[in-house]
């Protein structure tokens, strides 16, 4: 039997929009409805953006990583019996995967899995600025859900990347960076979001099965 209630999914946002964006609110709502307890948080710079109504760039990566680790400590204390899964949309997913990469090297590895929603393998049209080097050595079970035509890493590009056996990439049909397909594709955004939720739930369920074996 799969026990999704054993897990807590800690999720964060991308660079430009916080957890109140339609994408984030919908994902958190649908994952919770599926039975996977999901909590989203804003990075400190995003909190300032929302308080001041002024745009600002994300903090540098070391500060983002530490902010994510701080959230982990909070939720570990609040939910001591939960198995932790971390993840995020775009930049948030990259931060989560870097956190997983750091923590898995310690004796107190508390991360059971990582889930990335639209991984930013490179800035659009800048394929030479690759951001996924750490994914080749990652041992944490990781799921990347990627739009097939995501300008931060298309299906064609990703097929040529060297990724760890612990990293699974599943593609969202005709999806862009937020999984939105073109009208002529025959797919809809709601279908793609629903597929994303299903694949996340199945991924977590397989973790449970692997633990029981």
**For this structure, what is the CATH class?**
Alpha Beta
> Main β-sheet: number of strands, strand sense, barrel status?
6 strands, parallel
Quaternary arrangement of the chains shown? Answer: single chain
Count of discrete structural domains: 1
- Give the distance, in angstroms, between the N- and C-terminal Cα atoms: 12 Å
The CATH topology turns out to be Rossmann fold
What form results from the Cα inertia axes? globular
Strand order of the largest sheet: 2-1-3-4-5-6
Helix percent band: 25-40%
Structural class designation: alpha/beta
Please write the string of helix (H) and strand (E) elements: EHEHHEHEEHEH
- CATH architecture term: 3-Layer(aba) Sandwich
In the predicted model, the low-confidence regions spanning at least 5 consecutive residues are none
Average pLDDT over all residues: 94
Number of helical segments with 4 or more residues: 6
Number of strands: 6
Q: Radius of gyration, rounded?
A: 16 Å
The CATH homologous superfamily name equals: Alpha/Beta hydrolase fold, catalytic domain
Strand share of the residues?
Answer: 15-25%
Task: Outline the structure in words.
The chain is an alpha/beta fold and 213 residues long. The protein has a single domain (4-212), classed as Alpha/Beta hydrolase fold, catalytic domain (Rossmann fold, 3-Layer(aba) Sandwich), CATH 3.40.50. The chain has six helices and six strands, in the order βαβααβαββαβα. Strands 2-1-3-4-5-6 form a six-stranded parallel beta sheet, with helices on both faces. Helix 4 (91-103) links the parallel strand 3 and strand 4.
